[in-house]
Amino acid sequence: MDSPQVLRKGTTLTTEDLEGVRTPRRVLVTGANRGLGLEIVKALLERDDVDKVYLGCRDFEAGTALCCGELWDLGGDRSEAVELDVSDGESIKRAVDYVSKTLAARDDGHVQKSREYLDAIVNNAGIFLDAEADIYRKSAAARASLAVNFEGAMNVTTAFLPLLADDATVVNVSSRQAARTLGFLEPRHRDAFEANDIEAVRRAAYEVADLLDDDYGPYTTLATPAHGLSKCALNAWTRIMAQQRPEMRFLAVAPGQLRTRHNPVVWEGGLRPRPPRLGARVVVDALYGAHASGSFLAQTCASDGTRFLRGEYETHDDSWESSATQVVDWVVEPPAA
């Protein structure tokens, strides 16, 4: 099932396609005090058109230390830490209250005279539990991953909606494994993920999670099932929100294999993940690029997409600075009609 919101592989967009869309000046980044999230913050602060970057951090002290140290040297007072645990509803509410107060413009008499809005959210906070198979059952790992990678992004965005500009952009950090997982699902589950019903997506996601422990079930050979399933659900929500809120932009972005605490090992055959700063460029380029709402974006080495799946794995040089994006299909191999 193709969504009209999803552009086909090879589609080229120009800046005229999104003429008049707000340039994000105030951005919230979740999971921002380490790894990819921190590099996204740095990439944003390097831009002259960014006024404020909020670092959503579970470790508030670590985030504050960054804002007063490394990030201060880069962007002065344009960064600010916000305590935010995306899996904790009360933490999300407190973060909304805090950001709301900082966005309220006040005169010298401390009387609110106007307010500003967030222009973008980058839902980066996430967990990767597939590498800890000796600790978690597959179903437990998948459920925990869904709670953070999928439900966490939804809950943060929903809570911050009153603070978002009417034409704001929401970028969800996804993975190519999401598309591979969708292509692997049984028809009944794939149909649910491709429906325009977030509750159907949620039910199907947790049903698949429970089937992962079945040694004779349909998903015994699914690679990194917890991660892929949670990002697959995140992509589905991205597409649904693009349809439900056409005045805003919702993008799912796969930054590629990165060298973070989630993925620290050298891959077999000498292949290794890239530094997170390169993944951050992919995310930030997507945020400021001319991409239609509902798109799923990933890095590629070739403009025609012929090396799409090979590009990120064949690079060994950390100096490789390509950050081009290519609009790709939601499933690698669409089902036959």
Please explain how this structure is put together:
The chain is globular. Helix 4 runs parallel beside helix 5, helix 6 packs across helix 9 and helix 7 packs antiparallel against helix 8. The longest helix is centred in the middle third of the chain and has 23 residues. The protein starts with 25 loop residues before the first strand and ends in a 10-residue tail after the last strand. Strands 3-2-1-6-7-8-9-10 form an eight-stranded mixed beta sheet, with helices on both faces. A two-stranded antiparallel sheet has the order 4-5. It has one domain: Rossmann fold. With 337 residues, it is α/β, with parallel strands linked by helices. 46% of the residues are buried. The protein has ten helices and ten strands.
Index terms:
10 helices; disordered N terminus; NAD(P)-bd_dom_sf; 337 residues; single chain; disordered C terminus; globular; oxidoreductase; Rossmann fold; 10 strands; alpha/beta; oxidoreductase activity; two-stranded antiparallel ribbon; NADP; 38% helix
Largest beta sheet: what is the strand line-up? 3-2-1-6-7-8-9-10
Known CATH architecture: 3-Layer(aba) Sandwich
Strand content: 15-25%
Uncertain residue segments: 1-18, 264-271, 301-337
Instruction: Determine the CATH superfamily.
Output: NAD(P)-binding Rossmann-like Domain
Q: What is the fold-level CATH name, i.e. the topology? A: Rossmann fold
**Which CATH first-tier class would you pick?**
Alpha Beta
Let me know the largest β-sheet.
Answer: 8 strands, mixed
Secondary-structure class: alpha/beta
Total E-strand runs:
10
* Gyration radius, in Å: 19 Å
Give the N-to-C terminal Cα separation: 9 Å
Q: Please, how many domains?
A: 1
Order of helices and strands: EHEHHEHEEEHEHHHHEHEE
- Mean pLDDT over the full residue set: 79
Compute the number of helices: 10
Q: What is the helix content? A: 25-40%
Form type: globular
